[in-house]
What does this fold into?
Amino acid sequence: MVHNPPVALTIAGSDSGGGAGIQADLRTFSFHAVHGTSALTCITAQNTQGVSRVDALAPESVIAQIEAVVSDIGIQALKTGMLLNQSIIEAVAGYLQGLESVDCVIDPVMVSRTGAQLIADDAIAALRQHLIPLATVLTPNRYEAQILSGQSISTLDDMKAAAQTIQGLGANAVMIKGGGFDGELRGVDVWYDGTTLTQLTTRCIDTTDTHGTGCTLSAAIAANLSLGHSPLDAAKHAKDYVTKALSYSLRIGNGQGPVGHFYPLLEK
Ligand SMILES: Nc1ncnc2c1ncn2[C@@H]1O[C@H](COP(=O)(O)OP(=O)(O)O)[C@@H](O)[C@H]1O
Ligand SMILES: Cc1ncc(COP(=O)(O)O)c(N)n1
It folds into this structure.
């Protein structure tokens, strides 16, 4: 039987522990029956306790990987994750500007759940200036949203105000993620696309094994966009996938375990 699946691309870093980064993204694509392709930006030595080393790839190497995929296989959607430094961000943004009809999910990865800084200081300005205007959907967490908006965020109203400020930077839609809150806001996300301001709420999962939630969410949005869903529907489906994966999160390692991407295999 001839099978012609949607194709998605992740432009992100490798997580040796397998919970976040490229490893989380490719697994998420697979569990949406979307063919996953990848362009590595850097290699992290990482486990459930933190990041001990980061090795960057040359910007030319990142672009060559993207070009190899785009020129032959073709993609319907992509996500960016840990882009690490200014030169990689500028090179990627320059390439993406020339791509037509590809939905871009930009996860502005800056700080990991374990508190490790995942991006150089000078890279934040490049991200804001060059990449955010290309976003079909931009997915900052609480801390990234504070940096990008310049506003402190502790309430739902703060999230809504920041979403509007950040959307004004040029993103088509912004989804501020609530995993970094305590109490009832934990797991509540806010969506703003210039017209619709809404909150996306699922049940809160009581676990500390949340490594890879942000990567998984952005990859799942890209997968759902490649399947033809609208941005808001893609975000809703993706949130559902992350919530279920969180409810099957993995108790491995001595720190924060990853979400269980393969829960559909366990549910049967
Ligand atoms: N304990 C939880 N229960 C339910 N949803 C959660 C929980 N923690 C995170 N999420 C959801 O996971 C997604 C990723 O959010 P977040 O963890 O804030 O991102 P990041 O990993 O980038 O910090 C969001 O949809 C968020 O609401
Ligand atoms: C290579 C890499 N990319 C991204 C993250 C962020 O992970 P999270 O999804 O938990 O915010 C990470 N820890 N490592």
Notes: The chain has a mean pLDDT of 95. The CA atoms of residues 168 and 194 lie 8 Å apart.
